[in-house]
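Data availability excerpt. The first of two example chains:
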Amino acid sequence: MATVTNRIAKAVALCAALYGARRYYRNWGATKAECQMILPGDTSVANPAVQTTEAVFIDAPAAAVWPLLMQVGERVRRARLPRGLTVAVAEVVPDKDLILSVGRAGGHRKAVWSFHIQPHWEDRVRVLTRARIALRRPGEVFAVELLRPAIALGSRALLLGVKRRVERRIPSVLPHG
């Protein structure tokens, strides 16, 4: 009996910790205004059960960031998803927006994952990524919420990887030292 109670206590503690961390990882690096703004692709999934927005500054012009985001789009589009889901490039606005949709062939979109480049001066951009997921069954929502920390870490790693690769290619204008 003690082990059952102990397992229940651990499960409740894990859920409480995930719920507490949820606000942080759900909109990692994004401002409140960025989380609330309407971005291209948002209307593809009306009334999502889950919406996340993550962001990072990159010290480079949009033209330097765009090719790496397109590589991300190509990799994701070729990914195999479970349960007959497919990923397709829904919309491309060069040097600005990449919108990927997830759904079944001939069916409605279950999710949209978008990347947005917002210039800040000539040599700096803000890259936002947004996921909107239309889950309708409580089990789906629960499963996604349990997986969100891992998904958030993956998205964050992707954004920071793009940032590192781009900034490594762009020579610094300011002298160091």
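And the second chain:
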Amino acid sequence: MKSKDQLREAIAGRIAAMKQSERAAESRSICRRVLEELPPSLDGICLYVPLKTEVDIADLTQELRSKNIPLYLPRFAANILEFRRWDDDESLIKGALNIPEPPLSAPLLPAQGTVLVVVPGRAFDQKGGRLGRGNGGYDRFIHSYRSMNQGVIFWGICFECQMVREVPLEAHDERVDAVITARGRQLG
């Protein structure tokens, strides 16, 4: 099995080999799949601001806004990932990682309720194994939020080329409940 760093490098190469038009088309398909799989009643959805190599969720975001479901984006506060309410793009500020995030004054994600968290990653496997970027922010958030909220659902989303046979996991790594690709739900 490849080490985490080797797998990150291999996946980066796979994504770099995709044409921009392929990434855009696959991103649109993934957004459609997420919308098809949405649970009927949600108290909130946590999204992310995509980096260049991640699934572009603009179509998903636009559709979710029309459903009036509260949306939340990640914010790094004291090197800890938290999610805060996202009402409009104008209120976003550049965060510690130079990624737009809600201001500290935005309401924090409630500790209870039926919440879907859409999780990016570098690689995923059929068992919900997830390889992140290496700082552990999502793993700590998943562990903490899952322990306080029994109504939370974690879905990884990725391009087909990011699915691997097995993600090397350590004790602190957290699994997602399902992985959504352009082909649909991969588990759960």
